[in-house]
Amino acid sequence: MIPFNKKLDKVVDEKTMESVYNMVKTPKKYGAVMKYDDFYCDSPTLFKYNGLWYMYYITISKKVANSGYETRLAVSHNLFDWKEIGIMFSRDNSQKWYSRQMGGYAAFVNNEFGGDNEIHSINGKYYMSFLGADMDGYEPDPLLMGLAWSSEPTKNFKRLENPILRPDDVDSRQYERKTLYKSFMFEDVLNTTGYSYVNAYNAKDITNRERIYLAVSSDAEKWERYGKTPIIDDVTNNEKAIISGDPQIVRINDLYVMFYFRYNKGQGAYNTFACSYDLITWTKWNGEPLIKPEYNWENVHAHKSYVIKVNENVYHFYCAVNNKDERFIALAIN
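Below the sequence we write its predicted structure tokens.
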């Protein structure tokens, strides 16, 4: 485990938080952009490559007991109309640690808010992080974190043989010892941590509550935990809170903005954000959620952010869940 690199003693003030909220809010809900009759789909991550927009996303059969996560790829010219290209990772019977669950996320996309959103290769490799398991079902415990790479981000990914992080690692922290979930990997161009690459992810403890942690790397493949404590913890002192999850971190000049979701007992999951100058101390937004359940087609949960800015347009992709047994990827805009 690597200790936090506390270089700054600067906290994001409320005026800055209000400014960020006005910059990233997307009040206009466009609706579904990726939806299936027989599958749930979830967890979009986007990138641009060779002039086109691509999305990795997760699907699972609605008969979840005999199913598991797979990763698919879709393409778009305009961010509104998406066409599935195919399955990037499918379940198999190889009995490897990831053979029955494979939920993938784009890694090392330019995370400058309003930047080009291009996916970057590291030493000639494009990466996809993923959660994996050799068990059927909906997110069976434990889920481990893996990494895959390809010379092209749209095909032929090869998975590293071993997980990069496990909940039972020797240096596993107090609240991450049951399952590791979505990972968001980015290049630390400001060298805030002292390492080239940062991995933000949510993890579950033995009481089934989730918090957000960091890991760091010098080469994008060997990862070490960063800091002894979570960077986002909405649950320790709140009995109603269950999850702080699915982080996405963008950069606005020297300010880091983390989009993530909260889930509290008796309330639908919703998307919010927090801001930091050092990736350690975060000021949480406690105003109006960025995305929340509002309409009949998303009346259970509206959560799991992926937010990008293109020119002056902000696109907030998220997972909508309703009481008609539908889970799909939706879009809101500014």
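The chain is about 5% helix and 45% strand.
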